[in-house]
């Protein structure tokens, strides 16, 4: 690894999407498909081409390997993946995370990842309750989670996140509290808590559409608040609506994204935000691989947007408000080169939030109160845009 990224004033994240899963969880809306030897070979071929073609001239500050189920790859394939990533040029001290499902964790894979440079594991626990796990269409039980966690620590990984989900059909608040307590008992460094969403074309969505399940927004708010109240008392400081960490263990890759810096994504369905472009690769292995050989035109991406400083500043506001540190409006306008008058509408909006007790102010920084955080989505929807004459 080389010296840090000194010449650039914003950090660069690198994301790799590994699109293979052995089955589909009932809530899953991510692009994934069943692996085969042939598909894995063509994935690696296209991935190495895509990385070479990117001609990155900057060092990468954070790496995140997600999926899909990256842990489905064999140890030699995981090492190959890590070598491709190392070839992109990594800053010293890079934070390098991989998502692993408990069923896929074993000592051989972990030692391949360690040798390859990975230094942070995000374990997809979701819940410790076997019945709720079944309801999610997940294949692992709590025993697998305990074994996987032990293997990860035994392999010497010092930074571990546990992903938990709440709002599972038929889950009670008490079950959610038990899940959080069990996660804390394992002493991870970071805990992410996600509200189950009913994405279109998932098995859960069809059950919702048929009336077999229902959504209860009041209960959702209760789940959130229980996490916000409980996890900090156990040393897990909240730094974003859904994320909690021991001191110094916040996820730098996510912070890079929420701060509207730059990131580059590789693999089918991977997203990039770089050089004032935001784009999403095709969510199909063949289309993605063919596009890399022929070269993509903008309309061949699943999504493509030419960004402006105003668009980036607005996203920095929206994502910034989800973080506990909040936002500093003068800093945002300076960073994106926007005149201070462009903030007038936004300042007025925040004055209203302050009066309503939904936000609080500390010097130039504004953050949401707990009540404001419960209503973060509604506040984001009402946020006025920057006003430029
Ligand atoms: S393991 Fe993850 S990506 Fe794969 S089906 Fe389940 S939720 Fe989706």
Highlighted features:
389 residues; alpha/beta; TIM Barrel; Arc Repressor Mutant, subunit A; 2 domains; three-stranded antiparallel sheet; 15 helices; 40% helix; binds iron/sulfur cluster
Low-confidence stretches: 1-7
Strand order, main sheet: write it out: 7-8-6-5-4-3-2-1-9
Total of DSSP H or I helical runs spanning 4+ residues: 15
Domain count: the total is 2
CATH class value of the largest domain: Alpha Beta
Largest sheet: 9 strands, mixed
- Helix- and strand-based class? alpha/beta
What general form does the structure show? Answer: globular
Write the CATH fold name of the largest domain: TIM Barrel
Topology as a string of helices (H) and strands (E):
EHEHEHEHHEHEHHEEHEEEHEHEHHEEHH
This entry's quaternary arrangement is single chain
Radius of gyration: 21 Å
Q: Portion of residues in helices? A: 25-40%
Distance between the termini: 47 Å
* Architecture per CATH nomenclature, i.e. the level-2 architecture of the largest domain: Alpha-Beta Barrel
Q: Give the total of beta strands.
A: 15
Chart the SSEs and their pairings:
Layout: E1 12-18, H1 37-54, E2 60-67, H2 75-86, E3 90-100, H3 107-116, E4 120-126, H4 130-135, H5 142-154, E5 160-166, H6 173-185, E6 190-195, H7 203-209, H8 217-230, E7 237-240, E8 243-245, H9 252-258, E9 262-266, E10 271-274, E11 277-280, H10 285-294, E12 303-306, H11 309-321, E13 327-328, H12 329-335, H13 344-355, E14 359-362, E15 365-368, H14 370-374, H15 376-382
Parallel strand pairs: 1-2, 1-9, 2-3, 3-4, 4-5, 5-6
Antiparallel strand pairs: 6-8, 7-8, 10-11, 11-12, 13-15, 14-15
Helix pairs in contact: 1-10, 2-3, 6-8
The structure holds iron/sulfur cluster.
Iron/sulfur cluster is lined by residues 21, 24-25, 28, 30, 32, 67-69, 101.
């Amino acid at each position: 690894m080389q010296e840090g990224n000194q010449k650039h004033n914003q950090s660069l994240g690198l994301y790799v999407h590994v699109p293979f899963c052995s089955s589909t969880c009932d809530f899953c809306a991510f692009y994934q498909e069943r692996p085969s030897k042939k598909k894995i070979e063509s994935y690696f071929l296209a991935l190495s081409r895509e990385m070479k073609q990117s001609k990155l001239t900057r060092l990468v500050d954070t790496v995140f390997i997600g999926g899909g189920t990256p842990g489905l790859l064999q140890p030699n394939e995981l090492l190959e993946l890590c070598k491709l990533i190392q070839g992109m040029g990594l800053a010293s001290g890079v934070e390098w995370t991989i998502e692993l499902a408990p069923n896929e964790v074993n000592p051989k894979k972990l030692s391949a990842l360690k040798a390859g440079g990975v230094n942070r594991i995000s374990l997809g626990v979701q819940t410790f309750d076997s019945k709720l796990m079944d309801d999610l269409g997940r294949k692992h039980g709590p025993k697998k989670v305990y074994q996987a966690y032990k293997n990860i620590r035994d392999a010497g990984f010092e930074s571990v996140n546990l992903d938990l989900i709440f709002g599972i059909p038929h889950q009670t608040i008490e079950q959610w509290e038990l899940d959080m307590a069990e996660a804390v008992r394992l002493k991870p460094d970071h805990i992410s808590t996600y509200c189950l969403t009913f994405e279109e074309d998932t098995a859960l969505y069809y059950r919702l559409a048929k009336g077999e399940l229902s959504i209860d927004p009041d209960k959702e708010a209760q789940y959130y608040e229980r996490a916000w109240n409980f996890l900090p008392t156990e040393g897990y400081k909240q730094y974003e609506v859904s994320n909690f960490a021991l001191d110094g263990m916040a996820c730098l890759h996510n912070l890079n994204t929420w701060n509207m810096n730059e990131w580059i994504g590789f693999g089918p369905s991977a997203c990039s935000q770089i050089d004032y472009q935001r784009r999403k690769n095709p969510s199909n292995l063949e289309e993605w691989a063919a596009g890399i050989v022929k070269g993509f035109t903008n309309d061949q991406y699943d999504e493509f947007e030419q960004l402006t400083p105003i668009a980036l500043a607005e996203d920095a506001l929206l994502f910034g408000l989800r973080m506990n540190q909040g936002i500093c409006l003068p800093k945002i306008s300076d960073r994106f080169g926007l005149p201070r008058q462009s903030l007038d509408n936004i300042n007025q909006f925040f004055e209203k939030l302050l009066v309503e007790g939904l936000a609080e102010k500390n010097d130039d920084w504004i953050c949401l109160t707990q009540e404001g955080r419960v209503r973060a989505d509604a506040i984001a929807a009402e946020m006025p845009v920057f006003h430029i004459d």
